[in-house]
Amino acid sequence: MKILLFEDDLIAGLEAGQTTPCASRLNGVPRLSEIENPRPPGGEGCKKNGEERRTAKIRTQPFFKLGRPSAHAASFQKMNLLLLLISFWLPIGLGACATIAPARASDELERTWEAAIVAIPEKYFRLDGSPGMSPILAGRMKEMMPGLAKIPAGTKMPLVIYMHGCAGLDFYADQDKRFLVRHGYAFLAPDSFARQYKPKSCEPMTHTGGFHRGVLEFRLAEASHAHEMAKTLPWADQRNIFMMGFSEGGITTARYVRGGLAGRIILGWTCHAPWPEYKGISGPPDEPILAVVSSKDPWFKDPSLSGDCGGPMASGRKIESIMVDADVHYVQGFPEIQSKIVQFLEANRRPGN
Fold first, then answer.
1. Fewer CB within 10 Å, N- or C-terminus of the chain?
2. CA-CA distance, 302 to 304, in Å (whole number)?
C-alpha cells in the first residue's frame, strides 16, 4: 500500500550517505566496473590515469634483460627484484589487514555497545533524589549503567533498537530518540563510529554513498550484538523488542536475518540496490514490518535504487510499505508518518508484560 502526502507537512530535513574516494559515479551509485571490482577503502583507485598506466607498465616489465649478466649486475638485479617485490606486496598486505578488520571482532562490537545512546521514558524511572538524576535517563551506555541499575525491580518496558544512518548519531537520531521516548519506548542506539576501524561510507552534503561496501556487514554485526545484549537488560521487555533503522540503518534493519523481534521499521530506504547483499528483505516472513520512503528521495535518483519495499519482494510477508510524495530523506519528520510509526508499534506489542 502506498500513501501520498504533501511536502508542506514536513517537520525535519536531510541525513547522510556514503561513496569511495575518486570513484566514477552516477548519482552516488557505483558504476558496473566498481560493483564487479569494488575499490578498497584506502582509495587505491584514486590515482590519475597516467599514474595507473605507469604503475602497470613497471610491473609488467621483465626484471632482467636476456643474456648472461655479470656477477655484479646479477647481484644488483636481485636486489632490485627484492625491493620491487617488497614495494609491491607490502601495501597489499597492509591493505588486506585493514580491510579484513573486524566487522565482527568482539572488542569492536563492545565499543559500539558501550558508546550506545540509551534513553528511558520518565514514567519508568524512579526519582529518588539522587545527585545528578533527571526525569528522563539518557546518555551513553557505559556511563548510564549506574543509573539504569536504579530502575525498580520488575519494571519491564518496550525497547526500540535504533540503527543510525551513515552520518552516525546525529541530529536526526536525536529527534527519533525524543520521539520514541515521548511515546513510552526505551531507546537503544549502538554507535558504529565508536569502532577504532570505521571507514567512511558516505558524503552527506552531496547525497553520495557506497564508499565502503563492507559497511553493511559492520552494521549487521552491531545490530545482532545490540539485540543479544538487550536480552541481558532486566528492565527490557523481551517480548517487545523492536528494531528501527534510518537510511544506512534502514538497510541494516531490512537485511537483519536473525528474527526474534516484535517488529521492524525501515525508514529512508527503498530495498533496491545494485549490490545483491543490500537488496531485498531478510528475516522471518511473519515478522511485522513498516517501511517508509520518499518518492523523490535525493539519495536514490539512480534507477537501480528507486522504488519501495513493497511489491514482489514483500510477497508472503507482513509488511506495510508507504511511499511519501516528497523529495526529502528524513521521511519520519512528517506527522502522518510519526502517527503510522506509533500505530505500528502499539499494534504489534505483545501482551504479557
1. N
2. 5
Cell 569494488, residue located? 38
Q: Give the model's confidence band at 353: pLDDT under 50 very low, under 70 low, under 90 confident, else very high.
A: low
Do the Cβ atoms of 127 and 210 come closer than 8 Å? no
304's CB contacts (< 8 A; 6+ apart) are 29, 272, 273, 274
For the cut 80, the answer to whether the pLDDT of residue 133 exceeds it is no
Where do you find CATH 3.40.50.1820 in the chain? 7-17+105-347
pLDDT more than 70, % of the chain: 67
Virtual torsion, Cα 115, 117, 123, 127, nearest 10 deg:
40
Render the burial of 264-290: b for 16+ CB within 10 Å, e for the rest.
bbbbbbbbbbbeeebbebebeeebbbb
| Three-class DSSP category at 195 | coil
Q: Is 165 helix (H, G, I), strand (E, B) or coil?
A: strand
N residues, the chain: 353
Q: Mind giving me the DSSP string for 243-293?
A: EEEETHHHHHHHT------SEEEEES--S--SSGGGSS--S-TTS-EEEEE
Residue 352 banded pLDDT, cuts 50, 70, 90: low
Residue 196 falls in which region: left (phi positive, over 0), alpha (psi -120 to 50) or beta: alpha
Architecture of domain 7-17+105-347: 3-Layer(aba) Sandwich (3.40)
Distance CA 20, CA 327 (A): 25
